[in-house]
TrEMBL record:
GO terms for molecular function: ATP binding; protein serine/threonine kinase activity. InterPro entries: Anti-sigma-factor_SerPK, HATPase_C_sf, HATPase_dom. Keywords: ATP-binding, Kinase, Nucleotide-binding, Serine/threonine-protein kinase, Transferase. Residues 15-127 form the Histidine kinase/HSP90-like ATPase domain. This is ATP-binding protein. It comes from Microbispora oryzae. It holds the Pfam family HATPase_c_2.
Length: 131
């Protein structure tokens, strides 16, 4: 794992480091200026992206946390097969899956979400304003 200046992160992760990544995101986002419910919501959204990358993606899996103007941005990427088109409706809580399937919906409620996905992998970008 490696960290960048200013308390921001750039690291590769796997199943064994998910808890450590959540801790590092919490500390880094707090140092960047998030606190209270905004911090909790952002960390939950990032954790959802990280666990989805572990569950559905393939290595390498990376997370990068950085400031962009007055925002805090987190990008989670993997080299998996991409997200199926039917799962990309981030505006509707999905009920078509027996288990799961609500991650994008949740991330979209907790942060500004954008998704780039295809047969060579996925990048989830989560962004929140720093006030």
């Amino acid at each position: 794992m490696r960290t960048l200046t200013g308390g921001l992160l750039s690291l590769e992760f796997d199943r064994s480091t998910v808890t450590r990544v959540r801790h590092l995101v919490t500390v880094s986002a707090h140092e960047a200026g998030l606190d209270g419910m905004a911090l909790e919501d952002f960390v939950l959204a990032v954790h959802e992206a990280v666990t989805n990358a572990v569950r559905y993606g393939t290595p390498p899996r990376d997370i990068t946390l950085y400031r962009e103007k007055s925002s805090l941005v987190c990008e989670v990427s993997d080299s998996g097969p991409g997200i199926p088109p039917e799962a990309l409706d981030k505006d509707a809580a999905t009920t078509r899956f027996d288990f799961g399937g609500r991650g994008l919906w949740l991330m979209n409620r907790l942060a500004d979400l954008s998704v780039r996905t295809g047969p060579r992998g996925t990048v989830i970008r989560l962004c929140v304003l720093l006030v």
